[in-house]
Write a structure and sequence with these properties.
The structure holds two protein chains of two kinds. By secondary structure, chain A is an all-alpha fold. Chain A is 67% helix and 0% strand. Chain A has a domain of 130 residues. By secondary structure, chain B is an all-alpha fold. Chain B has one domain. Chain B contains four helices and no strands. In chain B, helix 1 packs antiparallel against helix 2 and helix 2 runs antiparallel to helix 3. The longest helix of chain B is centred in the last third of the chain and has 30 residues. Chain B starts with a helix and ends with a helix. Classes of the chains: A mainly alpha, B mainly alpha. At the A-B interface, helix 1, helix 2 and helix 3 of A face helix 3 and helix 4 of B. Chain B: InterPro entries: PhaG_MnhG_YufB.
Chain lengths: 187, 113
């Protein structure tokens, strides 16, 4: 924050209202109301579908070339982050409940586990996808991509949840459900 | 070298030059707004020119189509990101440096805080 320190008087003025550089810790009630910008909103409206498509593309390409669940998940989560930047974090956070995000993350973990333990059922080890070839054509490829999609869903859900956690403030009483999301974030 | 490759080389070299200008601007300029001013314009032009040079060298292929998409999206998103950063800085009341103020001496006295 060396930019803010360039003018000590202004920094002192801000200090009277908020706690210095820790502006992220301000609860929503003390923050000034968010004023939307036409430029950002228009760009995000145009870009968001493409970004989501790119995220799915990278996610599904993980099995055969560069890409993968982690990268694709982050790109897909960027869509939600961009929407938060453009339309304000609180309105977007109101649309996405924490329970829904936790459900998303759990479904991704569940997909991974189902494919993983399914390896035992088709006569192999954990995540031994070559066994799926006996079930259907190109089985190993499709099961790897299913695992990638599961990872991507987990990553995007966790990134979105962490972004909302940072954006809406951690220390307010109404965010108690956020602590339920955090154990999943450790995975 | 074919003429097309020479054109592509010129594009990449000019793009690298603008990237260098952006880097020097970020390091040398005193406060957030002027740094953003230097970075957003030159960096957009630099990356777009470099990618355009690569697309020219690749000719009409799938890869060059992807590069064209990248150029278009960079041209749209990079200035928007700069606008968003400047806007956020103004909303957080980051003051631009005043006329005649010298930031370097104070920075060094405070141990480059």
């Amino acid at each position: 924050m060396s930019d803010a320190d360039a003018d000590p008087d202004a920094a002192a003025d801000i200090d009277d209202e908020v706690d210095g550089e820790g502006t992220l810790s301000r609860p929503a009630s003390e923050r000034p109301p968010y004023v939307e910008s036409t430029i950002i909103m228009t760009t995000v409206r145009v870009i968001a579908p493409f970004v989501l498509t790119l995220g799915a593309f990278v996610m599904l390409h993980g099995a055969s070339s560069a890409g993968g669940g982690f990268q694709g998940g982050v790109i897909a989560a960027t869509t939600v982050v961009m929407l938060g930047f453009a339309f304000g974090i609180e309105p977007i956070a109101a649309h996405l409940r924490n329970e829904q995000l936790a459900l998303l993350v759990l479904s991704g973990v569940g997909t991974f586990l189902v494919v993983g333990f399914g390896g035992y059922l088709v006569g192999g080890n954990f995540l031994q996808v070559s066994g799926y070839e006996t079930l259907f054509h190109n089985g190993s490829k499709y099961s790897i991509e299913l695992v990638e999609v599961g990872i991507g869903v987990v990553v995007s859900g966790v990134i979105t949840g962490l972004f909302f956690l940072l954006g809406t403030g951690v220390d307010t009483g109404a965010e108690e459900t956020d602590t339920d999301t955090e154990p999943e974030a450790d995975r | 070298m074919t003429p097309l490759e020479i054109v592509a080389t010129v594009f990449v070299v000019v793009g690298t030059f603008f990237g260098l200008v952006a880097t020097v601007g970020i390091i040398r300029l005193p406060d957030l707004y002027s740094r953003l001013h230097a970075a957003s314009k030159s960096d957009t032009l630099g990356s777009v020119l470099s990618l355009a040079g690569l697309a020219i060298v690749l000719g009409l292929t799938t890869e060059s189509m992807k590069l064209v998409f990248l150029v278009v999206f960079l041209f749209v998103t990079s200035p928007t990101a700069a606008h968003a950063i400047a806007r956020a800085a103004k909303e957080e009341e980051v003051e631009p440096i005043g006329e005649g103020e010298v930031p370097w001496t104070t920075d060094q006295e405070e141990g480059n805080s």
